[in-house]
Amino acid sequence: MLDDLALFVRIVESGSLSAAGQKLGVPAATLTRRLQKLEADLGCKLLHRSARRLLPTSEGWQYYERCRPLLASLQQATQALDVALNQVSGSIRLLAPVTLANALYRDAWAGFLARYPDIRLEMRLANEVEDLLERGADLALRVGELTDVQFNQRRLGDTRVVLVAAPAYLDRHGQPQHPDQLAEHALLLAESLPQWALVKRQNGERWSAPIPATPRVRLNEMQLAVDLAIAGLGILYCPLPAALAALSDGRLRHALPDWRGEARPVYAVWPQQRALPARVRALVDYLIEFSAAQPLMRDGDIGG
To answer: Which CATH number fits domain 159-263: 3.20.20.450, 3.30.70.60, 2.60.40.10, 3.40.190.290?
Structure first.
């Protein structure tokens, strides 16, 4: 009925069936049939027909005056939705882990905003996994395997976890030779990594253990944990990107050189029930492109 209502408004504004038909690309006979159906549905006559033009009846004028602004509002709403879904502009709300956003993707945000100047980025960084729907976010970055079926996901790559300590600490307390010896050392625990998992380089032997029960320091902020490791307070299990600079300049060393940390997948996730607007798709595509160019995500052995 909505289409017929729009046709009625166009007929009134055009003044005749033939003029309306030309503007709409619809035969006059088709307009006549649809107008008659609309009048039958409403139970009243909407137009006086003459040889030269059509004039609204009293009921037709009332119907026209009420329907015209409604159709205009609907058209504006449709245009606004089209812009929101199909134009690369507007606001994106993103959730991401603090270390991931600050270390691995630090250079991505400025590059993305430079490429798309009409986009506004609202980022909420948290060490805890926050509810994407509750926060009203468009997109979230997650580390680790995902099982929640209410989200769509795109794998961006993998990031390695490493076991590190300051040279001064290892010189003072000795270099462990096997992960089982970690219990004899001061350990720094970042709560975002609930399981310590290592693989021996030579033979693929796997070792894992839950969070140490009595760490020297327990905290929920990774960069501070790295700083404490650099200060020589203990051995830390942390994402490679967070420790890479200190490993490169010698402030940290690998605590178990014959073992490497697990590779953890990085995903972009978004709600299944929402259409993915063009602006959010642009960010997903950019993160895929950015991740593919990062050696840390293409080769988990870089830096250990």
So the answer is: 3.40.190.290
